[in-house]
Amino acid sequence: MKHIQFDHQKPLDFIAIGRLCIDLNANEINRPMEETSTFTKYVGGSPANIAIGISRLGKKVGFVGKIANDQMGRFIHRYLEKNNIDTSGVVTDRTGAVTGLAFTEIKSPTDCSILMYRDNVADLKLEPNEVSEDYIKQAKCLLISGTALAKSPSREAVFLALEYARKHNVVVVFDLDYRPYTWTSSEETAIYYNLAAEKCDVIIGTREEFDMMEQFEHTKKDDDVTAGKWFRYHAKIVVIKHGQKGSIAYTKQGTKHQGGIFPARIVKTFGAGDSYAAGFIYGLMEGWDLDQCMEFGSAAAAIVISSHSCSDAMPTVEQVTDYIRKHR
Amino acid sequence: MKHIQFDHQKPLDFIAIGRLCIDLNANEINRPMEETSTFTKYVGGSPANIAIGISRLGKKVGFVGKIANDQMGRFIHRYLEKNNIDTSGVVTDRTGAVTGLAFTEIKSPTDCSILMYRDNVADLKLEPNEVSEDYIKQAKCLLISGTALAKSPSREAVFLALEYARKHNVVVVFDLDYRPYTWTSSEETAIYYNLAAEKCDVIIGTREEFDMMEQFEHTKKDDDVTAGKWFRYHAKIVVIKHGQKGSIAYTKQGTKHQGGIFPARIVKTFGAGDSYAAGFIYGLMEGWDLDQCMEFGSAAAAIVISSHSCSDAMPTVEQVTDYIRKHR
Amino acid sequence: MKHIQFDHQKPLDFIAIGRLCIDLNANEINRPMEETSTFTKYVGGSPANIAIGISRLGKKVGFVGKIANDQMGRFIHRYLEKNNIDTSGVVTDRTGAVTGLAFTEIKSPTDCSILMYRDNVADLKLEPNEVSEDYIKQAKCLLISGTALAKSPSREAVFLALEYARKHNVVVVFDLDYRPYTWTSSEETAIYYNLAAEKCDVIIGTREEFDMMEQFEHTKKDDDVTAGKWFRYHAKIVVIKHGQKGSIAYTKQGTKHQGGIFPARIVKTFGAGDSYAAGFIYGLMEGWDLDQCMEFGSAAAAIVISSHSCSDAMPTVEQVTDYIRKHR
Amino acid sequence: MKHIQFDHQKPLDFIAIGRLCIDLNANEINRPMEETSTFTKYVGGSPANIAIGISRLGKKVGFVGKIANDQMGRFIHRYLEKNNIDTSGVVTDRTGAVTGLAFTEIKSPTDCSILMYRDNVADLKLEPNEVSEDYIKQAKCLLISGTALAKSPSREAVFLALEYARKHNVVVVFDLDYRPYTWTSSEETAIYYNLAAEKCDVIIGTREEFDMMEQFEHTKKDDDVTAGKWFRYHAKIVVIKHGQKGSIAYTKQGTKHQGGIFPARIVKTFGAGDSYAAGFIYGLMEGWDLDQCMEFGSAAAAIVISSHSCSDAMPTVEQVTDYIRKHR
């Protein structure tokens, strides 16, 4: 039984909308950033990572987003093209906005942090009239990322993309990706997250992210209750992640799937969620059952956290399959 | 057959959420404001006018909103109390915001304009955590007004109130009340208006307002199509106003009702929509059929446009009934 | 001996730069504004009042400022013209700014307050390139008002006007006019006030205003010390006002002049400073000795505080002379 | 004859006020930034570079500025300390501001550019009350840098420091350092630059910077005229730089000194001005004649442009002396 149906007539497999930015990863690891001296530049941002991941897995991928009119923006554009991602939906800002930056600090494999530059960033300047209905409708699947809801006009652009997707039978995946620093308040976040989630087919987030979304309800924070809530709207699949303890996926039909994690020689924890999402969505599009999707996602995550970068470490199908075989 | 069901157990008849402001009406009329010299102060703002109107018609009314911590704010508070409106949901701003102002200019009965002061206004600073679920759930009916969606945090406060209303079976009326000057763009407006309208039971607006909301659809601007769209969401009644040509009301059951206008000795056109809404909603709550609701609304409108003020001219049931009898 | 020298070749007597706004004076007095219901509209703003005052006294006056592109702005423009003030230096804002408002509340003759609307006001949007060197140089005297220093770009426009005045031998009078609500902090105010005052010929302010300007100095607040400080820069005359106790004027030559106040049937205290300044500057331009200038200013002040308005009550030479004769 | 007198009783030789930021220099040079992949992190900002330069030359140096409360801010703090710069005047921002960034791109030795991150930066948040009169008065010399005048409250902090310096006989050097991207308009820049320059003892800038400052004057852009203007205020020395053609220094006494440039194996042109200023000011403090100061500054500049970094390449006295000997 299929939990979710993709329209196989559509020419593009997958479009992500939202953040395109730059990761600057400290080359010297296992020390505070005060003591590092060089950084390597990568394309970053959760939806960018997922799009790159799904492209590496062999799908036809496009992106809708906004880049700065500078060297960083052009670097991102080139990198997407090099990764076979269609950039016809990527527009260039003309207001002097900058590219968002994330300096990563790896004090130890489990003590990592990020120093963000998010003032006046191009990605949040995407406007509704820069989202093409004709483009969105060509995709089997649209991924929206919570961070793109943080500010106008990007927020409105995402709601419009969501509307177009619904109208044209495009499956919508909502990767919650909650980053408190881009938001005014947790109340504001919860309100827009709920408005968006009501219209999505697949919702993927951590337990903490779902808790944030339920702050106005007086229910106990319970995975079964959370999943049940969304099935009363449009959701068909809800995935709740519990970090080291793995994840749990629910289907509207009532099935419940526990997923574990793979062993890994962890360099840093960044990128685990994005590679998981890429692997999981890939599985869904292949029509696999949920247990298999979750295993594939977990293996992709294990590969990425064993590497220095996020986007650049996204694995191919062969690498993931191989990893599963070796570590199952 | 009842088109809409109110929960008669609830202690409050009606709560409005949104704008509370001050009208400064030029006393010297039929000339440009450059030539006027004195103004009279009234409470204003579309939801304030409607709340006052419904209270005058004898219903138990409350308000959820924010007022400035100054003489204008206190004047509004007193006026609501004097009109038997419960103000337990009205909070006072502490950030130095001001009271919104509308200077009205009456060049001729049909050539009226408004000079607005909407920078840093208290009403748009209402926060989600200032909206009480316990309060909202006590009402049979909640009115939301489009202008309150124009800016954060008021926008989020309204979406939250809407959620509480839905959860507790409170009928939600959406008075579109579109004022371009408070919005960044017409695209932004359309996106939030649609998100809100999807969740409402009764939608009242002008043809132009519905056109604005349909800007991303490639349908022709047609009343039947418009009404039909909203019945696929939660709406039970849709009212489309055509100015001097009257209005048309649709029900989910498929009925369609044409409403005319009453003759009036027009002083100015301001306030016609608010008094119509007050009269129409009053009729719905009384369980009248739609033709009677529309006639009552139109008569209330005719009374208000024959007066100098909006809020202060809202009629009683006797006045409306009397007017209908005389002019039918 | 002349304390200050005006260049009598110059065609204009006096130009003021800065705030043009609207006073809305409650018609019902001796009560809080919560209990008033009508307001009368007047042109207001300290430099506007002074310019009108000096024009009424028979001098040739011009203005450099910015008005909103609305009915209030046009009302101001007309009123200046009607008062024989040259408006060739008054430009109209094109950004959607509004006219500043001051609602006055007269609880008792000595308990008056003002409710200000100063967000996004046109007067503070005057830009340096809207100040004409050719215009400034035509005046014998330029008045700058402290409030115009509160925000960019008006602040820069005033500094540029000051530079032009100095270059072309135009006497500069600085009316301190400190309104805390338009400023970010008292430190910020003091810094720009001092930068401006260093370049002025005549400085007029209250003791409290001079105290604010001396906050970074560890001197005791003493009129002699204050005046002495400014004579080490460019000042020739310093006037320090002590409210009900009158004022004291110092000259660079070392003379010191005590001025009293006239009896008045006070309606409200607003406008006293502006009419005093108008009368005092008029006297200076007539070449009177300082005692006579101060007496003339005090009489003008007494006339204005006995009236309902500020600008509209500015007296003629005959009225002032008459008042002095009757009350000396 | 001494052109300028330092008070040798004062315990600190030199304090700089203003920008502390981070340079991220592309390690791969002679290519556009789109093709670089790693960056090295250095302390940057014109006044920081000059302070480091003067400290390397053996003077006792302090800094007044504001750093972000993050890893970048702490890195700057440590680097200053490591370079024997007193940081008791360096405060930490508590508002969530970030550290300014400058990504440098070296396409060729003569085609270099900078990608700046200047939104919400800590250095421009320095407040007047964070500038200590007791600290400023301990220095023989204060350097102010034009960029710190770009925004409130840093602008006011600099004007206050300038006032304290004047009051306590601290020689003030103004390094114009005009960066258009931090300013609203060139008019605004000129107005504040002129207000500051009027109070300074030494003014150093490029011909283009002086042209910008003279935009409201109708003089021809001529070095003699420029220098003459400032000697009518407080300046004793004016240095006008002409890039590759060297520089020209004027003294109030009427002398005029032409300075050349040294040959160098140029890596990039950044930092030339800062190292020149450090060397020149060092010479002034040593009591050298102007020709010698200029030669020393030029040699320091030649050394820095032959290196990858700015701050980190600042030479010692021995290195400069050696360079002069070899290349004279």
TrEMBL record, chains A, B, C, D:
Name the SUPFAM superfamilies on file: Ribokinase-like (SSF53613)
- Please state the Enzyme Commission number of this protein: 2.7.1.92
**Pfam families recorded for this chain?**
PfkB
The record, for InterPro entries, names:
Carboh/pur_kinase_PfkB_CS, DKG_kinase_firmi, Myo_inos_IolC, Myo_inos_IolC-like_sf, PfkB_Carbo_kinase, PfkB_dom, Ribokinase-like
**Which controlled-vocabulary keywords does the entry list?**
ATP-binding, Kinase, Nucleotide-binding, Transferase
Gene Ontology molecular-function annotations:
5-dehydro-2-deoxygluconokinase activity; ATP binding
Swiss-Prot/TrEMBL catalytic activity: 5-dehydro-2-deoxy-D-gluconate + ATP = 6-phospho-5-dehydro-2-deoxy-D-gluconate + ADP + H(+)
Q: Which GO terms describe its biological process?
A: inositol catabolic process
Segments forming domain Carbohydrate kinase PfkB? 15-316
Pathway stated in the Swiss-Prot or TrEMBL entry = Polyol metabolism; myo-inositol degradation into acetyl-CoA; acetyl-CoA from myo-inositol: step 5/7
| Keyword Amino-acid biosynthesis among record annotations | no
Family assignment from sequence similarity:
Belongs to the carbohydrate kinase PfkB family.
Q: What does this protein do?
A: Catalyzes the phosphorylation of 5-dehydro-2-deoxy-D-gluconate (2-deoxy-5-keto-D-gluconate or DKG) to 6-phospho-5-dehydro-2-deoxy-D-gluconate (DKGP).
How is this protein named in the record? 5-dehydro-2-deoxygluconokinase
Specify the species: Thermoflavimicrobium dichotomicum
